[in-house]
Amino acid sequence: MLTLDDVIKKITYKRLATIILIVTCIPIIFPIGLPIPVSSQTTDFRKEIDALPQGSVVAFGFQMSNIGQIPQYGPGYQVITKYLASRKLKVVYVCVSDVSPLTVEDVIKSSGVEAAYGWKRGEDYVITSYIAGEETALASFASDVQGTVAADYYGTPASQIPLMRGLKTLADFQLAIASYGTFTFADMFARQWAGKYPSVPLIVFGMFGTVAAYYPSQVRGVLDLDRGGAEFEVLTRLPGAYSSRMDARNLFGFTLVILMLAGNIAYHQTVGMRRRVGAGFERAFFGREEKEAEKQ
Question: Taking the model in full, what pTM does it have?
Fold first, then answer.
């Protein structure tokens, strides 16, 4: 009869690696959407978006330090953009780094919001050209939108863009979103946007630790990168790369726990069997000697 110990012994290093590879690849290829606890900052992030009526305008402050950050931040940009479009909101992507305009353009294409939700450039979303100056750029946009954004990323004058008409300061927006790859921008957004325009709620997609001091007063909600992105995907029922990664990680950990439990159970069963056999041998051997001693 095949015992648990026999099964465990048949799992070689190569077979263990194969098991783990299969377990982690399944949710990446076929997203499962395992339930995960959702943090309060992620719930607050969604609440601020849900509170907006259709047609509201959102200022999306967009900063990336380099293209190499796309694998980590890209899925978050996509799910946020999808949700904004699904709520029929209008978005001005405020690009304050040189790679931001190109990244936003790729996010719009890869998320498929134009086909899925009928988003139109110039009417439902605008990608600004690169606004240099970091904190100065954020302050300039907040105080003088028209003076800071002369044209969009495609060279269309701001005066000819329907969505840009009537936007003079940050106070004309109903919500502000900040996303950054350079952590010092957390304080910049808090100072120049939330600090000077408290009537406009600010929510953040970035590492929670960088804005923990501002939450929940100046920063109303936070998506904490991969974990927050996965929670947001589950919360909005828009599965993507983050939830797939979380599923893969959870299944990987679950598999290791099961294998460790099985190994421990098999070990204790084997040790117990050896002890029982040893005790039986001891009774049989020493019991015979005792009986012979009694006869003598």
Answer: 0.78
